[in-house]
Amino acid sequence: MIELFTADTPNGWKISIMLEEINFKYKLTKVNLSGDQFKPEFKKISPFNKIPVIIDHKHNKTVFESGVILMYLGEKSKKTIS
Ligand SMILES: N[C@@H](CCC(=O)N[C@@H](CS)C(=O)NCC(=O)O)C(=O)O
């Protein structure tokens, strides 16, 4: 299962849209950007203190940077553009 750490911003929306498009089940965890991004436990998964981040619990992988997350999910989905 994918867990998405996100907030109500375009970079966050990009990943929600992708997850919906590829029809993956995911858990959405909201991050309050008024300061929670600087908490040590969040820094462990997001070294630059930014959303979005995903944890792929099944494969024990953490991915940050929206473009990288999109590529990761695209590859996982095995969908092609036609
Ligand atoms: N290059 C990053 C940018 C991420 C980014 O700027 N996230 C913003 C929200 S859209 C953020 O977490 N801001 C909190 C902060 O800078 O403290 C990406 O594409 O993921």
Descriptive notes:
The protein has 3 helices and 4 strands, in the order βαβαββα. By secondary structure, the protein is α+β, with helices and mostly antiparallel strands. The chain has a single domain (2-77), classed as 3-Layer(aba) Sandwich (Glutaredoxin). The protein has a 4-stranded mixed beta sheet, covered by helices on one side. Strand 1 (2-6), helix 1 (10-21) and strand 2 (26-30) form a beta-alpha-beta unit. Helix 1 (10-21) runs parallel beside helix 3 (66-77).
Provide the structure class. alpha+beta
The percent range for helix content is 25-40%
Rg measurement, Å? 12 Å
Distance between the termini: 27 Å
Could you name the CATH class? Alpha Beta
**Might you state the CATH topology name?**
Glutaredoxin
Within CATH, the superfamily carries the name Glutaredoxin
Q: Could you tell me the strand content as a percent range?
A: 15-25%
Ligand list? glutathione
Within the largest sheet, what's the order of strands? 2-1-3-4
Shape: globular
Order of helices and strands: EHEHEEH
Number of continuous helical runs: 3
Mean model confidence by pLDDT:
96
How many beta-strand runs? 4
Oligomerization state: single chain
Q: What descriptive keywords fit this protein?
A:
34% helix, alpha+beta, 82 residues, 3 helices, single chain, binds glutathione, Glutaredoxin, 4-stranded mixed sheet
